[in-house]
Design brief:
Order of helices and strands: EEEEEH
Number of helices: 1
Structural class: alpha+beta
CATH architecture: Roll
Number of domains: 1
Strand content: 25-35%
Radius of gyration: 14 Å
CATH topology: SH3 type barrels
């Protein structure tokens, strides 16, 4: 567990673990899972493999912005054979 005094994030970064964020370098939206080794780890909102991003490339997204990928994933799953 990272304590406040050991927080590796730049002070200007306002993206907390568990929040939804956009990786502007990859144009992907995901949930912030961890900060490790100077990188942020994000996971796609619909699940899947995490990816590492530079904290400078990550910005918070609004609730309405985060709903788009969730709806797209739900639509994709609804068309899969059961």
């Amino acid at each position: 567990m990272t304590h406040a005094s050991e927080d590796p994030r730049p002070r200007s970064l306002a993206v907390d673990i568990g929040s939804t964020a956009r990786d502007t370098a990859r144009e992907r939206v995901g949930r912030v899972m961890a900060y490790e080794g100077g990188r942020m780890w994000l996971r796609p909102l619909g699940g899947g493999c995490e990816w590492a991003a530079s904290p400078e490339d990550v910005e918070p997204v609004t609730l309405s912005e985060s709903l788009g990928p969730l709806v797209a994933e739900a639509n994709r799953r609804s068309t899969e054979p059961r």
